[in-house]
Amino acid sequence: MLKFLLDENVPRKVKEFLESVGYVAEYSTKGLKNSQLASIAISGKYVLVTRDSDFANTILYPPGQFNGIIVLRVHPPRAEKLIEGISGLNNVFMPVSTMLKSLLKALRRC
What we know:
The protein is an alpha/beta fold. It has helices at 12-20, 34-43, 79-90, 96-108, and strands at 3-6, 24-27, 47-50, 69-71.
């Protein structure tokens, strides 16, 4: 099962969405440096979810060291837009009909 580590800059609605579709999602401790966050993601075998574009730098954060890094570059960065962006990735892991039902449910709560 995929586990997601959410940076403090990711809205709670994204966490709720990931959990509603069956994934484990946890927030990192607030105030961590990027290097500390990266170490936790690597050692815990998490997929890191962040809005911090520094994590898109493949020299500083080589993709092969992580279970995954999702940098949410969605504007405006409202919860429903971020959920829409991350749910597109969900097609890889679950049937589309299940994903759409979950997304609609999450958006109704926004």
